[in-house]
Write a structure and sequence with these properties.
This protein is of the alpha/beta class. It contains eight helices and eight strands. The strands form two sheets. Strands 1, 2, 3, 6, 7 and 8 form a six-stranded parallel beta sheet that branches. Strands 4-5 form a two-stranded parallel sheet. The longest helix has 35 residues.
């Protein structure tokens, strides 16, 4: 092979490698923004202990701010059961929080717990036409109050609910309204601080009988969360697990 031909081959090889490098650069340059867009902030708003006399107000506020939430419902206020259907009609998710919310009853044994949540699921089915498979333990899976009624029951229940096809959800932020004596300003402040800079957050709030201050704090919190860039989502099959460390 003469020198002239060899030079042409080398030149062709260099040109080919140059094109590959340029193509690779543009492919990565185009892919990068797509991956960035997929990592936006996500918030799962959750409300426990309802429905109650405050639930309709919560629904009205959520509608005003175009925010979806998940309601972990109880049977404590039978006269407000119809609001479970309204929650579902407005595009919110429904989960079980137990029927009685009586720690001494539901945590006395695994059998007592499942009897209670099945009773609540029957109520839910009457309201929305089907049973649900998501739940939240009163006090969360990390609660220690249950030890007073049955040692080791949370360790057992967290396994049993999964084996029965349920999924349970705790939380990684709260507005602090488990204490019904807190002021509106304290709830707003706590709800902001606990969310912090988290990219994916599940916020615990309440819409039970003692949640009047939560209703007043909710608009300010929703406005703040929206300004921080959060997208509100309901719990569904794509929701990541939010499980606390089990302490009993």
């Amino acid at each position: 092979m003469d020198k002239k031909t060899w030079n042409k081959i080398l030149l062709s090889c260099f040109c080919f490698l140059g094109l590959v490098a340029i193509s690779s650069y543009f492919v990565h340059k185009q892919d990068y923004p797509v991956s960035k867009q997929s990592t936006h902030k996500i918030m799962y708003l959750t409300f426990d202990d309802g429905p109650s006399q405050h639930t309709q107000e919560v629904l009205d506020i959520l509608k005003k701010y175009n925010a979806k939430a998940t309601f972990f419902v109880t049977g404590e206020k039978k006269e407000y059961e119809y609001l479970i259907k309204e929650e579902y009609k407005q595009g919110h998710a429904i989960g079980i929080h137990t029927y009685s919310h009586d720690y001494g009853e539901i945590y006395s044994s695994p059998e007592a717990y499942f009897k209670d949540i099945e009773k609540m699921n029957d109520v839910i089915e009457k309201q929305i036409g089907h049973k649900v498979k998501i739940l939240r333990f009163p006090g969360g899976s990390s609660n220690t109050v249950s030890r007073k009624y049955c040692d080791g029951i949370m360790t057992q229940l967290t396994k049993d609910v999964l084996n029965k096809g349920y999924q349970y959800y705790d939380w990684n932020a709260s507005n602090g309204d488990g204490n019904s004596n807190l002021s509106v300003s304290t709830l707003v402040d706590t709800g902001q601080k606990e969310v912090g800079e988290q990219e994916v957050v599940m916020v615990l709030m309440h819409d039970g009988a003692g949640s009047e201050e939560t209703v007043k704090a909710l608009p300010s919190l929703l406005e703040y969360y929206q300004k921080q860039g959060y997208e509100f989502r309901i719990i569904d099959d794509s929701t990541p697990e939010f499980h606390h460390h089990v302490n009993n």
